[in-house]
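Running log. JK asked me to keep both predictions on one page so they can be read side by side. First protein, sequence followed by its C-alpha cells:
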Amino acid sequence: MKFSFPRIVLAFLLTSFASLPPQTAVSQDNSAFGLVVVYPGGPNPGSSGQRVIDDFVARLSDGSGLPLTAHYFNDIAPALEHLAANPNSFVLGSTGLFLGHRNSLGLAPIASVELPDGKPEQYFLVTRKDAYSTLEDLKGKKISGSVFFEPQQFLDRVVFDGAVATGDDFDSEASSRPLSALRSLTQGEIDGVLLTAPQYHSLSALPLAGELRVVFQSNPIPSVGLMRIDNEDTAAATDRLRDALLGLAETDEGAAVAKTFGVAGFAALDDAEIENLVNLYEQER
C-alpha cells in the first residue's frame, strides 16, 4: 500500500516548492516582496511541482497586485539569515516558527491554515500497543518525528503544555521521514513517534496502524500559517496579500490549487487566540 503523508501547510507547499533552487546562502532581494517558505527537515529541491507553485504564486500576485518572489529553505539557519537580510518578506511557516522567532525577526501573524475536514493543528505521541501505555512510561525513551525540528520551547510549553521537558525527558531525534520512523517504532528500534494531526489521521491507511496506541494527544493549537516581518512596507501590503490568500479557495481554480497543496484554504486569525498562544509559550513552568 502506498503511504500518503499529508502534513500541515509547510509540507503541502514544500512538495511543490521543492523544484525551486535551494537557498543555502544569504541573498539580498530588493526586486519584490519575498514569499519565504521555511520547512526545516523538508524535502530537498527536486523537479516536480513547478507548475503548481507557479500557479500559486501567480494567483497571489494577480489577486494582490504584489510582485512576489518565492524562496524555499529546509534548514532553519540559512532561512533566518535570509529573513534578517530581507525584511521585505512574507513567510509561510509553522506556528512553532512564529513563536520561536517572532521577537528576533519581528514576525507578525497574518492568516491561519484550514486543514481538510476541519481538523485542528494538534499533535499525537504514538507507541507500540505491547510496550507502553502512558506518557510517563516514555520518559527516558527514544522518541522521533518531524515535529522535533520545531523549537524545543514550543514543544515543551505549547504541544505538551508543561507535561514533559522534551530535552530532558526524552531521547528525542528529529526525522524528516515519519513513515520510516513509524516502521522503526514497530520494529522496536525506537519507542515513540510524535505526529502532526495530518500525519496521525493518515495512519488508518497503513497496515501497521493496528499495532499502535496514542499515549498523548495535545490540545488543539491555533495555527499560524502566514506571517510577515513587521515593517512599514509589509504592513502596507498585508491586507492585499491576505485578501488574495483568503479568497484562494473561493473559485474553482483556486480551490483546485489549494487541494493540490492538501489544504482546504486559509482563514483569518483570532487575535485573542493568538494572544493566549503567545502567553502560553512565554509562561515558565
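And the second, directly underneath as requested:
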Amino acid sequence: MQNLRSPLVPRNTPALDAWRRELQAGQRTRCSFDWLWRAACEEMNALEAPTPALAASYFRHARRIVRAAKKGRAA
C-alpha cells in the first residue's frame, strides 16, 4: 500500500464518498454508470495505486471528471 502521507496524495475522496452514500440510500445501483461512478473509480484507483505520483494522477483525473460534469460536459 502506498504512503498516504505524501503531499501528492489527497486524504479525502469526495466522489467515492458520495457514490457510497447514494448506493446506501438506494439512489443508485452498482450498475449506474455516470460521471460520479467514473470519478469514484478514479479515486479508488488512487487509493490502490502503488506510488504517490500515480495516485496523484488518478486524483487529478477524478477532479477533472467532476469539474466537467458541473459544466454539463463529458471529461
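Observation for JK regarding the second prediction: The chain has a mean pLDDT of 88.
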